[in-house]
Amino acid sequence: MLKKAMIGALVLGAAQLAVIAPATAEARDVSWFLAPTEVEPGGQIYAETKAAMGGCGPATPVTSPGFAAPLQWTIGGNWGKAAGYGKVGKTPGKYTATFTCSDGTKTSRAFTIIGTPPTTKPPTSTKPPKPTKTTTVKPKPKPQVAVKPVGAPQTGGGAFAPMAWDW
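Above: the chain's sequence. Below: its structure in token form.
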């Protein structure tokens, strides 16, 4: 009886793993990074993944509406490293960078081009701007006349005066 219970538990456990395993393979998060996450308009950005350390082998370049051009994987290395540099666009805002792995998994990361995003509405005012006040530059006052000394100059008591030696 114990033997039948153990076999039944083993079969049930294997059946559960068979159902769960494919679902986790599709939902896995690929390990990769995009740096910096906040970048100046027109600045440089870096992406890296390592297939042997939770990453993947990229099948496509990294693309984003915030990139000036797709980021190409031009650097390789140990642990299945794939990396590359790219330039971001000039329009400030929050963007998402995405690429597809060789196994079909799509992954993405967020980044921000810093600055004030452009407004979508043009100014509605039709009035001309108010003229600014012009300030008149006041002339500088004439400098005071220095007080001229009167009398003999004060030279001190002569304590440090050179001595004449008579040899």
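The helical segments are 2-26.
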